[in-house]
Amino acid sequence: MRKAKALIAQGGTIKVEGNRVTYPSIEKGKVEYRSFLISDIEYIKDDEDENQCKVSLPDKYVIFEIKYFDSYDEFEEFRAILG
After folding, report:
1. Fewer CB atoms near the end CB (10 Å): N or C, the chain?
2. Which residues pair with 31 in a beta bridge?
3. CB-CB contact of 31 with 10 (8 Å)
4. Full-prediction pTM beyond 0.85?
5. Strand ranges (DSSP E) for 3-82?
6. Residue 2: in which H helix or E strand, if any?
7. For 48-66, how does the pLDDT look when each residue is reduced to its tens digit (9 = 90+)?
8. Looking at the predicted structure, is the pLDDT value of residue 28 above 50?
């Protein structure tokens, strides 16, 4: 919850532009942006109990939680874009 509040406070946003997803990450109290290509996704694991999806990439994984989005519908739309 702390990360979500910090991301919101700093104006963190998740963007999908074409095949690229850019997302905020908190590093040492500051928001830094990272990105990956949708085509690089190895698999996605949904966890409905935790309201999140875990995206596995060749060198790391990224967890997107519903609390990072304005609504459940927005989260679902994002999840559908990922595949």
Report:
1. N
2. 26
3. yes
4. no
5. 15-17, 20-27, 30-37, 43-47, 52-56, 61-65
6. helix 2-9
7. 888 899 999 999 999 998 8
8. yes
